[in-house]
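Q: How would the structure tokens look for this protein?
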Amino acid sequence: MIIFTRIDSVIYMHPLIEQAIKEKRSLLENEAREILKIYDIDVPPYRVATNEDEAAEFAKEIGYPVAMKILSPQILHKSDAGGVALNIVNAAEARTAYAKIIVNAMNYDKSAHLAGVLISPMMRQGVEVIIGMTHDPQFGPVIMFGLGGIFVEVFKDVSFRVTPLDKIDAMEMIKEIKAYPILTGIRGERAKDIEALTDLILKVSMLADEQPEIMELDLNPVFVYDQGVSVVDARMVL
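A: Here is the predicted structure in token form.
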């Protein structure tokens, strides 16, 4: 099955997904971010460095502090491979981090293809949530929402819905998790932007329905602020 994307109501095949299918691999994170952009999902700016000099140059261009992550279709869980460096604040640190990430990735999987290192700005901290999607053999795309970051595996505080979703579905998903009061504001904290979070879930639902070759999708973490949301990490498996 060929993947298409909607542009001005006309259907076009997206070359990034087509190429990944031909190469029988998952999307790299930079590619996943480009797919998210098609659905009007804001992602932080990024550059892909392929050597230490580019790492220093691109980090300065983006603006310190930056985060750096390995790009490899064989390494989906970057932290497990030592493929992530955070709070890089100068060119020397960028060069050192690039070299260390590459060495760690090679040691983790000597057969992995390393496409470079993704560099993007460190985003300010918000409430961490996860938005995911998987394909159920009977029901098709199923959207998951819950508390994000490392907490999703610990507390498993999540909700599910089968696509397509409407606004009521998305709101119910958010309200069903036990951590919902954190989003409404506790202990003097300001309420988070539930409207923006709802909108993001609906966009993921649309993406899942229109891109059937994406078997799994994880946006984790997504930072939710009192105004807006930020997708910090994106993973798509074909």
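Residues 95 and 200 are 35 Å apart (CA to CA).

Confidence is low (pLDDT under 50) at residues 1-11.

Upvote if useful.
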